[in-house]
Write a structure and sequence with these properties.
single chain, alpha/beta, Protein-Tyrosine Phosphatase, Chain A, 16 helices
């Protein structure tokens, strides 16, 4: 594709060299550059791409897109293009290069602190059961129809993302469902994409190591809805105090969902067990294999989006009753001794509160709740004591352990968590750094009717220690501890 065509959706400040050169690929990582590529120099959180322009040229880059002023002594035969913001430009450039894939897909984005993976994945599974070819971009895994593509980030970079969406179009996909993280929105990774609609789940403290303030985090989420044009839909959770705030400046058609008050899509729990719930959704009863009020909210978002995409109410509810929870999201494993474990990705105070509230409603005082949890290293330290508090408030026993310590010492993370507990809570809490031993201890403490929550890692089959991912799967460890 001609460079001039690639730049058709961005405003060029200045350029040196011909804009009619052929471009065979786009890269923001200089190490991946091949002859004929356009290298986009992006100022990232870890590195500034402008420092790697010479390396990209040495590897064969034909053109450079940059924010810095053009070089006074440019390399012969290389086209340099200056724009105001390469982070903002790379999305539209990638979209153009890959043939504007979202013009051929109905793309739905899901954003919020908790519930993104469940909503996006259940929508994907639902529409496939309805006979459609679909794509999924999620924390757990990306899918092109039924083919899994490993996921490194909740939302990939714009080039990877557009390449993935283009492959979905080639595979005949009609729909795609995508988690839109706050990082991705703030870093303009979804720039240039056309969405059919968006869903807001909820907003609680998370990622403040990156966004610095809660307002910045909130505003990053809101920017997604601000960008939705007329002719799209926006579905929001009015049980969350930020739900209507998110919709203030959107041009999309707004619909609401709630488990507590009047809304366009309303649901409530009629019956509940560790295996599932009987729900009333808009006056119709449906049995589902999901558990917890937070999952009622997730399923209402799915239900609402399916209706906004034109699906009949009865068919949506029928398919909903057939679907299973997402890997690592409130997955129950029963012990032969009559107690159970729930494996869940909960890694924020709010997520722990939601899962433990659901467990306590099921246990209803007839058994103990034992929680095994930790917190990730090199992330928002402020949420660590808050997570320990939520675990202690809603559990009979708590075992604080290692999660993904990354480049921190796990004992230091555990100490940060324990600092949030009072004397009474500490008397019911033990610290076991070895996660395997922590899970085994929880199983030894449990009796018939008890429920163990193993929180924080969910679908992750590894522990990240000093930059190395060691195999570790909570599902496997629970089954071993249960003698299964």
């Amino acid at each position: 594709m001609l460079l001039s065509t690639l730049l058709s959706r961005v405003e060029v400040v200045a350029h040196h060299g011909s804009l009619d050169c052929d471009i065979s690929g786009i890269q923001i990582d200089s190490r991946l550059v091949k002859p004929g590529h356009l290298f986009v120099a992006v100022r990232g959180t870890q590195a500034d791409g402008h420092h790697y322009i010479d390396k990209a040229i040495a590897l064969g880059a034909t053109a450079i897109l940059q924010c810095d002023p053009l070089p006074e002594s440019p390399t012969a035969g290389i086209t340099y293009v200056q724009v105001a913001d390469t982070e903002a430009a790379v999305g539209p450039v990638a979209t153009t290069f890959y043939g504007d894939p979202t013009k051929h897909l109905r793309l739905v984005g899901v954003t919020g602190t908790n519930g993104k993976t469940t909503i996006a994945t259940v929508l994907y599974e639902m529409f496939r059961k309805m006979g459609h070819k679909c794509g999924l971009c999620s924390t757990v895994c990306n899918y092109i129809d039924g083919t899994p593509i490993e996921a490194d980030h909740t939302t990939p970079d714009p080039i990877t993302l557009n390449a993935l969406l283009s492959k979905m179009v080639e595979a005949g996909c009609e729909y795609a469902f995508m988690e839109c993280s706050s990082h991705a929105i703030a870093q303009k990774r979804i720039g240039g994409l056309s969405f059919a609609g968006g869903i807001f789940t909820n907003l609680t403290r998370d990622h403040l190591d990156y966004h610095k303030t809660f307002d910045n985090y909130r505003d990053a989420k809101k920017a997604f809805f601000d960008s939705l044009p007329t002719g799209t839909f926006a579905i929001t959770n009015t049980d969350d105090r930020n739900g209507l705030f998110m919709m203030q400046n959107t041009a999309a058609t707004v619909r609401t969902y709630s488990t507590r008050s009047a809304a366009d899509f309303k649901g409530r729990i009629l019956e509940e067990s560790i295996e599932g719930m009987l729900l009333d959704i808009d006056g119709l009863e449906v049995s589902v294999r999901f558990v917890g009020r937070f999952n009622v909210s997730n399923l209402l978002a799915v239900y609402g989006a399916a209706l906004m995409l034109g699906k009949p109410r009865e068919e949506v509810l029928r398919v909903l009753s057939e679907l299973h929870p997402v890997n690592g999201r409130f997955e129950a494993i029963r012990s032969p001794k009559g107690f159970s474990a729930v494996i869940d990705y909960a890694h924020t105070p709010d997520a722990l509160e939601n899962v433990l509230t659901a467990i306590n409603e099921i246990v209803a005082g007839k058994g103990k709740v034992i929680t095994v949890c930790g917190a990730g290293g090199n992330r928002d330290k402020g949420k660590r004591p808050l997570m320990a508090q939520e675990a202690a408030r809603r559990s009979d026993r708590v075992i604080i352990t290692s999660d993904n310590p990354r480049f921190e010492e796990p004992e230091a993370i555990i100490a940060d968590m324990l600092a949030g507990l009072d004397d009474e809570q500490r008397s019911r809490t033990i610290a076991i750094t070895d996660r395997r031993e922590a899970i085994r201890t929880a199983a030894l403490l449990a009796h018939e009717g008890d429920v163990i929550l193993v929180a924080g890692k969910g679908h992750e089959p590894y522990q990240d220690v000093k930059g190395v991912k060691h195999h570790f799967d909570d599902h496997e460890e629970v089954r071993k501890a249960f003698g299964l």
